Amino acid sequence: MPRRNDEVARLLGELAKLTEIDEGSPQAFRVRAYDNARRAVEQLTTDVSGLSAGELAGVKGIGKSIAGRIREYVDTGTIGKLEELRDKHPVGKLELLRIPGLGAKSVELLASELGVTDLAGLEAALEDGRIAELPGMGRKTADNLRRSIGQLELSSKQTRIDLYVAVPTAERIVTELRGVDGVVDAAYAGSVRRFKEKIGDLDVLVATDDPAPVTAAFLDLDDIETVLGSGETKSSVLTREGLQVDLRVVPPESFGAALLYFTGSKAHNIRLRQRALRRGLTLNEYSLARLPQETAEAVADEAKDQVAEPADDTEDQAVEPSAPPDVSWRDLEVVAQRSEEEIYAALDLPWIPSELREDDGEIEQGERDELPRLVTRQDLRGDLHDHTDRSGDGRDPLEDLVAGAVERGHEYLAITDHAEDLTINGISRDEMLDQREQLRELEQQRGDIRLLHGAELNIGVDGSLDYDDEFLAGFDWLVASVHSHFGRGVEEQTRRILAAIRHPSVTAIGHLQGRMLGKRPGIELDLDAVLDAAAETGTAIEINANLRRLDANAQVIREGGARGVNFVISTDAHAVHELDNLRHGVANARRGRLDRDRVANTWPLPTFESWIEDVRS
Ligand code: DGT
Ligand code: CA
Ligand code: CA
Ligand code: ZN
């Protein structure tokens, strides 16, 4: 998506949310208009800044008045209406709107009756009983709210933030800063680069010899709420979504050392520094450098005795070796600093992927040259969970989705619209057969991609699936997934999933736990039983690339990989542009330390198709 469109889409989303609060309903005409326009801009392949108000209004989904607001943004850098709504409704209200069970009306009620306008205020009002006493709320609502806040770990007291909030912001900021004059490189680091599911803050690094324009561009980013601090090479801000972003500007020659340092984890870095000392070297955020002979010997002795324990914050001081006080690193001979690869190599290690850097065995594996061979985006040859506009929530026609897949280099693509049991979205047998014909024709016509005719089946509460076994056997590929009854007990849920895994026609289990980050926690499962069954039948477990799902999660992936379970990385795309999300599924698979050979959609088509035959026999 062109860079400008990304920003505009986000602002339209914010306008929709603020208007929802302002008008007291998500169904208000204006709310839907902003949402439609946001989707239209997300799907636009031309840069909005090149379009006139008239041309914008001609885009399907964008009305005249919103076209005007988009032009206003492109021309002036702000939208008057947005500023007005932001002044009227503090960010805390948006935070409240994210809590299940709290709609726009309740958010207004909380503000007008109790003066509660953020999460901390709500928690206080829950605690002292004011919510339970509020007409229109009551004790039951209070209990439900408390449960939602707890389950979703939304509590204001613990400020970890979901990865799905941080990654788009990280990508946007890095793209933005790369475009600043004089910038040689930019990257995000810290826990976001390690792809941890919950993060504290976002760390961004920029390599340049001229920090001033970078800092200026950073502080000028549109989504900043507060500047927490700003110096020549270090700035810190808070975004409107409550995410803290730390920027560090470093000279290009030490970018690798800085990236390594600020990616962490702290425990991984401590191990590397100990390793450096044993080699007469010292590692910090500027470089890996050689210590003078005498100091080196003294420190190496000391380092030899040190037990390499994983350090947490409290142990940090005790375990962390530091350069001796009489040595100034500025005088030392630099051994490596420009890239991470050079630094690892000088420590006799292969480059260790960021997703592994937790001091959880990766250094030992690196030493023995036994690191898992992690999957990359380039390894993937196809996408295996994709919706067209035939099922209710898909947005683009088959032809467009297929063209999008070919543009992205896919050799195969599975179309998996919802089947008939999903009453709102699902499609009938006749329509399925009709689609199959359409698909075969298109495949013939194009000749550049293999199209698998599939469906996304709904796993009923008793483990039953859509259609009947004979009809199911007619599909090339079947994803079965849970879409409702999330609250049942662990035994019932496990039975339900096992039935789907063991069904002869099912080839993959979609979003295994059905969680939606920030919205619902997902079903409880006996994962041992589920993974063992998947390993036994060969049925794949999906790694859903949607950042709101990250389902299966990294832990499940890691355990499954160890048991020889097959996985597929799929986008679950409901629109063409969502085909780009594969990269998030890849990152999650890497976080799960999965060997790329366990990912079925890295396989060449003949291997892939004979595996399907095996699973289904
Ligand atoms: P977070 O933000 O809490 O999710 O986790 P990180 O890992 O992003 O931690 P953060 O933002 O405090 O610092 C970024 C990285 O910088 C961290 O992973 C390692 C490095 N780092 C920061 N402070 C220290 C320190 O005092 N000692 C060491 N060894 N490394 C540090
Ligand atoms: Ca961080
Ligand atoms: Ca930080
Ligand atoms: Zn789906």
Number-wise, the strands total 17
Radius of gyration: 26 Å
Query: Strand order, biggest sheet?
Result: 11-12-13-14-15-16-17
Helix content: 40-55%
Write down the overall mean pLDDT. 91
* Ions and ligands: 2'-deoxyguanosine-5'-triphosphate, calcium ion, zinc ion
Largest sheet: 7 strands, parallel
The CATH class assignment of the largest domain is: Alpha Beta
CATH superfamily of the largest domain: Metal-dependent hydrolases
Residue runs with pLDDT of under 50 for 5 or more positions: 307-321
How much strand?
A: 5-15%
C-alpha geometry: globular
Within the CATH hierarchy, at the fold level, what is the topology of the largest domain? TIM Barrel
Q: What is the number of independent domains?
A: 4
Distance between the termini: 42 Å
- Give the second-level CATH assignment, the architecture of the largest domain: Alpha-Beta Barrel
- Overall SS class: alpha/beta
Number of helices, counting only DSSP H or I runs of 4 residues or more: 27
